[in-house]
Structures are given as C-alpha cells and as structure tokens.
Amino acid sequence: MLMKYKSAYQKIAMGLLSFFPEHRDLERLLVTMKEYITESNRQLFLWKEQEGFIGLIGVRIGENQIQVTHICVNPSHRNQGLGKRIVRALQEHYSKVPLTGDEATSEFLSRCDLHIDEKGKDSRPNLAVL
C-alpha cells in the first residue's frame, strides 16, 4: 500500500534512500530528506506490505507532470515486481497528471508498462490500486 511520508517514518525513509549510491554519504542523504520535507513541490511515499515498509518513491510535482526522482525497493524484496506496483499505485494517486522520470528513473519507468492516454490517465480498464 502506498503511504505518504510522515515524520514518524523518517528513519525508514532514510534507510531506503541509503540504498542509492549517492545517498550513502550522510550529508547528501540529509539534504535530500530536507528537500522532501520542506519543498512544497516534493513528495515522498513509502510502500508498506504485511512485513513493514519495503519500498519508497519520491516525486517532484509540476503543473503538467509528476516527475519520479527516486524509487527503491528493499534488496530482499527485489525482482518480485514491487517497483512496478509502486509506480502503478503512484500513477493511480496522480491519475490526472502523467508520470515522467528524471535521468535516474526514466529507464525504469519505461519498463513499467504504463498506459497513459492524452489526458494523463491510465488507459487500461479497471486498474486496481495495490
């Protein structure tokens, strides 16, 4: 289930972001967290399953698009399609605006089989949010 970031989840979010090589440096990690917390056009979401929080996705919100800037799944849960489920849930959350990627996330998003019509909505019938 996709859940908006809350300050109570800070350590979990930092742990997931630390899987990115550029965030292994604590100072860089703290700068990124501060951006998500203080900038009104940034939003961080966590993915929760029965065993707890196992994924994260961060976005930059624009007028005409939502740009995915971070996406991460705990290494012990990778290669199970969870990244795609997270992206699809995010697409459902922002159903009126198309998702795009940045240089770090575009390739992954291109493999997520997103079906977006000219209005930015998922064109597949009966998409269930997981």
Describe the structure.
With 130 residues, this protein is an alpha+beta fold. Helices cover 29% and strands 25% of the residues. The chain is built from four helices and five strands. It has helices at 10-17, 26-38, 82-93, 106-110; strands at residues 2-4, 42-49, 52-61, 66-73, 99-101. The longest helix is centred in the first third of the chain and has 13 residues, at 26-38. It starts with a strand and ends in a 20-residue tail after the last helix.
Structural class: alpha+beta
Number of helices: 4
Nearest-angstrom radius of gyration? Answer: 14 Å
Number of beta strands? 5
User: What is the averaged pLDDT score?
Assistant: 86
Strand numbers in spatial order across the main sheet: 1-2-3-4-5
Q: Low-confidence segments, ≥5 residues, pLDDT <50? A: 117-130
Strand content: 15-25%
Write down the secondary-structure element order. Answer: EHHEEEHEH
- What does the overall shape look like? globular
Distance between the termini: 6 Å
